[in-house]
Amino acid sequence: xxxxxxxxxxxxxxxxxxxxxxxxxxxxxxxxxxxxxxxxxxxxxxxxxxxxxxxxxxxxxxxxxxxxxxxxxxxxxxxxxxxxxxxxxxxxxxxxxxxxxxxxxxxxxxxxxxxxxxxxxxxxxxxxxxxxxxxxxxxxxxxxxxxxxxxxxxxxxxxxxxxxxxxxxxxxxxxxxxxx
Length: 180
Prior knowledge:
Layout: H1 2-8, H2 13-17, H3 25-28, H4 31-34, H5 38-51, H6 59-70, H7 74-80, H8 89-103, H9 122-136, H10 138-179
């Protein structure tokens, strides 16, 4: 499992080579941020799922900060945030809104689609996104936090279970080879 994941993740030499990240080299090159084991992978996946629901372009920044704070796999946390994109954000926020309405006992208004993403005028889009979220009020705010926590917990335990399943299967294969 580690070899498969490591094949697609960048190494820490990319941080040393980047002029933008060089000033954070001591923090970003901590070995636990780049080590790939079942705990760091599960933690990185959970951080990415949690931070993927941060609105706007701040998802990866949030994932990097949480990965550094919790010392989990940084590249995996950053990559996992990509589950939210312009195609998936509306259904995910709709689920979050409904979850928030359920948690608040049905309070809140009707769901309205978010503003369209504009990379050209990022500041205006971020402002419009904030106004959209404020317009939806408490159900969306509560729902996003609840959904982020639920996804992070489910993701963490799913990765741990998947890693364990992979290890058990590998052990059994090796035992079968040794017997033959």
